Amino acid sequence: MNRQHGSVVTATISGREVRFFVEDERDVIQQYHAVGQFYEVEELRIIEEFFPRGGVFVDIGSNVGNHSLYVGTYLHPRQIILFEPNPPAIAILTLNLALNGLQPVADLTYLGTGLADVPSRAQARVPEGNLGGTWLAPTQEEDALVLIRGDDALAHRRVDFLKIDVEGMEMQVLAGLQRTIATWRPPLFIEIENRNAEAFQSWTERQGYRIERRFRRYEANENYLALPIEA
């Protein structure tokens, strides 16, 4: 039997009761949950503006489920497909989904799996006090985390919105989603490290996307909401 140590925080937010499982109140994201708040409220409101009701939300880099929990609670998705490779985050994520009754819309098939441009393996590197800042280091170890191309999971499935937060691997993840994006032309909400900003701008031009919103919370990166030009 696995036992997860922590506490459950219940809050009423915008007229809905929300429950957060909190393991570490010092964690960058969980410290908001510990006081009954969502993390990155401004970013969530951008997603809300552009997410199509009844659509399929793909959460790449789900972490403890902050964004999926918001979408599932308020935005009426048909389905949420979650990608999160890091086991400590998965443990909290699955509890958050269960506590809020979101299992019927949550596809957990790819929990334990990360995305990249080629099938590979990686080890998780977790900064102290920042589970959401976990980054992946390539490795050949057979017991390491599994990375796949997003197209291998999604190209033949409906995708109405892509949220991508992968701590510097965003260009590799986009490369692995080429067929999916070409087929479904979903809105993208993506965190871009500063070092990848020029490459992302070039990507939007090649793929026929335009930047509709930008929001910077941290000095090292910026969030972009990108739409297909035909939208």
Automatic annotation (TrEMBL):
Organism name: Belnapia arida
Keyword NADP: no
A GO molecular-function annotation: methyltransferase activity
Domain Methyltransferase FkbM: 59-210
Source taxon at top rank: Bacteria
UniProt entry keywords in alphabetical sequence: Methyltransferase, Transferase
Protein name: FkbM family methyltransferase
GO BP, sorted A to Z: methylation
